[in-house]
Automatic annotation (TrEMBL):
NCBIfam families: pepN_proteo
Domain annotation Aminopeptidase N-like N-terminal: ranges: 29-190
CDD domains referenced in this protein's UniProt entry, alphabetically: M1_APN
Lineage: Bacteria, Pseudomonadati, Pseudomonadota, Betaproteobacteria, Burkholderiales
Pfam families cross-referenced by the UniProt entry: DUF3458 (PF11940), DUF3458_C (PF17432), Peptidase_M1 (PF01433), Peptidase_M1_N (PF17900)
Annotated family: Belongs to the peptidase M1 family.
Protein name: Aminopeptidase N
Cofactors: Zn(2+)
Domain Peptidase M1 alanyl aminopeptidase Ig-like fold: 455-563
Biological process according to GO: proteolysis
UniProt organism field: Paraburkholderia eburnea
Main EC class the enzyme belongs to: hydrolase
Keyword vocabulary terms for this entry: Aminopeptidase, Hydrolase, Metal-binding, Metalloprotease, Protease, Zinc
Sequence ranges assigned to domain Peptidase M1 membrane alanine aminopeptidase in this UniProt record: 230-450
Reported function: Aminopeptidase N is involved in the degradation of intracellular peptides generated by protein breakdown during normal growth as well as in response to nutrient starvation.
Length: 896
């Protein structure tokens, strides 16, 4: 709910069951863009498990009240107000019929019922249903729905809602109707309708039990050729969920609909998933390898919600990670399986590395700021602000730890018990934890702290080797160093941390492990259960001093503190059998070098090259035993944002200078190797979005990116120009354009101008590709003669720019503010002034999108004094002018 009322803090401890329950909902829509009439007939009864109430309070926003009846009789004791409807003196059981109207055409918030490109769509999570009709709009009120849609047949030939189509036909005056029935109880946030001029790719499959299922991907007619990959991803998701978890599609049909105006990535409405076009539409000419992979992951995520979120849902919004963290874990496992199956650990590790990179760059930063909150928050002002990295990504890591503790079979047993106990219910994170504990015969009371404590735990490691006794002791100490005040308030005691460890001998081979008290050697990776503030584990019969490989496969979302030497990191990068830790060693080595250089740049000292990093990268680049996808990830330097967060005072300009210095050094020292890697990883022939082909393209284009840093980028310009002109796929075309823009920034030459003009002309009718065009320019390096802010402001006047479209706003404004730190954090404060203007403008149109942008300055206290003062001024300007509680919650917490 976004409004100008005084914010009310909603607390988890105040939860009370609803005074009334609604067993059935019958909705009738007469769809007209400017005034849609909605009639809802509700079968209401008192909740025997709640306190008695004489009146029924329903939520509602921006609705026009027309009439109300109870049991067919007009009911005068009804009062409509800004936030809902009060129905006085109601009986214990009754049928309430409400008629109201809303204005979808004027709904720029994209929450509730709205119009996009002349079609009707809905978005009801978290609190959008109250913008459609008055209701007990909370997730623990679950009902069965019957929905009748009526509309002009020419303008809206397709009428869709949740569940199964049970009737359709023509009406007088050129209208028609469709009636849908969803046999499964669901909360109102899972309601959906779509009406408009759409076409579908259809496929019929048989479920594991032999039932026929109709699958449909609905899009605007000109996008039909971009739906095959989404359909294939849906089929793969269905098959994987049957095989991995024994979960079958429960409806006769499953529909995906793509819309260009959407606040999020997608929404799991029961049987009628509504998606941002970005996560549906793909063909080789318009979508990159990353787009293809993201579509597969998001289609999987929303389909998996059918069980983890829909069949079993959240009791209240504090339990959001019950569905989101669990389903992110499921989609990550699905994507890993699609990358290389269960047998290809290297391919699975690549996916794991990608996921952890996102977690550490974004969620760890969230944990350190004013918006820090536990996976299960204790309070909120605006629930839309808590669709966060902590709830999703850290929540996924918490779920993954169950699998680490119990193994895949034990995790499956816990899932089976969870559904056995709670199918059709609205439950809590504690219910999921209890199912895991009971299924595996474990006491997980301490594990609850992962849900209730905010901040990123740190595990300090010290080791001691007793050569005479052949004993190697590892002491693990856990705590929360450098937590934000918001996080410290929640920290009550030590966690149960599954800490995976291996020991590597001087020959580079893993050692078999035997803990003190054990009679036989075990596997070469051991999961230690750390439950105390400090614990020591002793390995025996260790013939030579080993090097520890710590937190293998990132077995817990913690920061490991261990004083590796540079030579030791290089050794791990060369020899560790755990792919994640091999990557991690390279990242630690690079981070150490880059932070040292950034400190020199910040102090105005000259930067000096260190060949140790060059040599380590050279070994990775030229190692044929490593997959191209792993080498691409290992050879990427840590991001500027991540590096700045590691400084005592963030200095984006110094970090940028250091990172560019190292990129140029790596480009120059390894020029021949980059050229060889480029040639060795060409992918001639028809484009295929397979993981293997994508890995080759990724390494090839990384090589091109490095080559574009050279003082004389002639080779890079030649290769990039030829690649751009000959490209048969968007991955190669966009990478070539990016390389030309890099070379232009490095030399001041106009290598990219012609390609940028060609790119726009070639794809002017493809909105998602034009988003890439905007984003590439917003994230370019820029020059002292023309800072990127000037380009961004000019592009905001471009006829293709539309602030009301979230994808377009994200492609230009968000890309500049979030993904171009050196330019955004300009010393003159111009980036912050621009940010404030855009947050205020978006707040008046779409508070959810505005709040996402507002978070870019929440860590302002961690920057250098000059930047800090300018950021605070921008935050105060926004705080004085915004009206939505979405944005106010963000900026007020940042300033507090």
């Amino acid at each position: 709910m976004s409004d100008t009322a005084t914010p009310t803090v909603i607390r988890r401890e105040d939860y009370a069951p609803p005074a009334f329950l609604i067993d059935t909902v019958d909705l009738e829509f007469d769809l007209v863009p400017e005034r849609t009439i909605v009639k809802s007939t509700l079968a209401v009864r008192r909740n025997p498990d709640a306190n008695h109430a004489t009146h029924l309070e329903l939520m509602g926003e921006q609705l026009e009240f027309i009439s109300a009846t109870i049991d067919g009789q007009p009911w005068e004791q009804v009062r409509a107000h800004d936030h809902g409807l009060t129905v006085e003196n109601v009986p214990d059981t009754f049928t309430l019929t409400l008629t109201g109207a809303c204005d979808p055409a004027a709904n720029t918030t994209l929450s509730g019922l709205y119009v996009s490109s002349g079609n009707f769509f809905t978005q009801c999570e978290a609190e959008g249903f109250r913008r459609i009709t008055w209701f007990l709009d909370r997730p623990d009120v679950m009902s069965t729905y019957t929905v009748t849609l009526r509309a002009d047949k020419i303008s809206y030939p397709v009428l869709l809602s949740n569940g199964n189509l049970i009737a359709e036909g023509d009406l007088p005056d050129g209208r028609h109707y469709a009636k849908w029935e969803d046999p499964f109880r669901k909360p109102s946030y899972l309601f959906a309708l779509v009406a408009g001029k759409l076409v579908a790719l259809e496929e019929r499959i048989q479920s594991g039990s032999g039932k026929e299922k109709l699958l449909q991907v609905w899009v605007e007619p000109h996008d039909l050729d971009k739906t095959r990959h989404a359909m294939d991803s849906l089929i793969h998701s269905i098959r994987w969920d049957e095989a991995r978890f024994g979960l079958e599609l429960d409806l006769d049909r499953f529909m995906i609909v793509a819309v260009s105006d959407f606040n999020m990535g997608a929404m799991e409405n029961k049987g009628l998933n509504i998606f941002n076009t970005k996560y549906v539409l793909a063909n080789p000419e318009t979508a990159t390898d990353v787009d293809f992979a993201n579509i597969e992951a998001v289609v999987g995520h929303e389909y998996f919600h059918n069980w983890t979120g829909n069949r079993v849902t959240c009791r209240d919004w504090f339990q959001l990670s019950l569905k989101e963290g669990l389903t992110v874990f499921r989609d990550q496992e699905f994507s890993a399986a699609m990358s290389g199956g269960d047998e290809n650990e290297a391919a699975r590790a690549t996916k794991r590395i990608e996921d952890v990179r996102v977690l550490r760059q974004m969620q760890f930063a969230e944990d350190a700021g004013p918006m820090a909150h536990p996976v299960r928050p204790e309070s909120y002002v605006e629930i839309n602000n808590f669709y966060t990295m902590t709830v999703y990504e850290k929540g996924s890591e918490v779920v993954r730890m169950y699998q680490t503790l119990f193994g895949r079979d034990g995790f499956r047993k816990g899932m089976d018990l969870y559904f056995q106990r709670h199918d059709g219910q609205a439950v809590t994170c504690d219910d999921f934890r209890r199912a895991m504990a009971d299924a595996n015969g474990r006491d997980l009371a301490q594990f609850e702290r992962w849900y209730s404590q905010a901040g990123t735990p740190r595990v300090s490691v010290t080791t001691h080797y007793d050569a005479a006794a052949k004993r190697y002791s590892v002491t693990l100490s856990q705590g929360y160093a450098n937590s934000s005040p918001a996080a410290r308030e929640t920290q009550k005691g030590p966690l149960l941390i599954p800490f995976a460890i291996g020991l590597i001998g001087p020959d580079g081979q893993d050692l078999p492990l035997k803990l003190e008290g054990e009679s036989a050697f075990g596997a070469t990776t051991r999961v230690l259960e750390v439950t105390e503030t400090q614990q020591t584990f002793t390995f025996v019969d260790v013939a030579a001093k080993p090097l520890p490989s710590l937190l293998r496969n990132f077995s817990a979302p913690v920061i490991v503190e261990y004083d590796y030497g540079n030579d030791e990191l290089a050794f791990l990068l060369a020899h560790d059998s755990d792919p994640f830790n091999r990557w991690e060693a390279g990242q630690r080595l690079a981070t150490r070098e880059l932070l040292a250089l950034a400190a020199r740049a910040s102090a105005g000292q000259p930067l000096e090259a260190n060949d140790a990093l060059v040599q380590a990268f050279s070994r990775v680049l030229t190692d044929p035993s490593l997959s191209p996808s792993f080498r691409e990830l290992a050879l990427m330097l840590p991001s500027e944002t991540y590096l700045a967060e590691q400084m005592a005072e963030s200095d984006p300009a110094a970090v940028h200078a250091a990172r560019q210095f190292v990129r140029k050094r790596l480009a120059t020292a390894l020029k021949a190797e980059w050229l060889a890697a480029y040639q060795a990883n060409l992918t001639p022939g028809v484009y295929e979005p397979t993981p293997e082909a994508a890995g080759h393209r990724g390494l090839k284009n990384l090589a091109l990116s490095y080559l574009s840093e050279l003082d004389d980028p002639a080779d890079a310009v030649r290769l990039a120009t030829a690649q751009y002109d000959a490209a048969n796929n968007m991955t190669d075309r966009a990478a070539a354009l990016s390389a030309l823009m890099n070379a232009s920034a490095a030399t001041g030459a106009g290598y990219a101008k012609k390609a940028l003009e060609d790119f726009y002309a070639r794809f002017e009718q493809e909105p998602l590709v034009i988003d890439k065009w905007f984003s590439l320019q917003a994230t370019q390096r820029g020059t002292s003669q023309r800072p990127v802010i000037e380009t961004v402001r000019a592009l905001m006047r471009h006829p293709a720019f539309n602030l009301k479209n979230p994808n377009r706003a994200r492609s230009l404004i968000f890309s500049f503010c979030a993904a171009n730190p050196a330019q955004f954090h300009a010393a003159d404060g111009s980036g912050y002034a621009f940010w404030a203007e855009q947050v205020i403008a978006l707040d008046a149109i779409n508070p959810q999108v505005a709040a996402r942008l507002a978070r870019n300055l929440e860590l302002w206290r961690r920057f250098t004094p000059t930047l800090r003062d300018a950021m605070r001024a921008a935050l105060e300007q926004v705080a004085a002018r915004v009206k939505s509680r979405d944005v106010r919650e963000i900026v007020e917490k940042a300033l507090a």
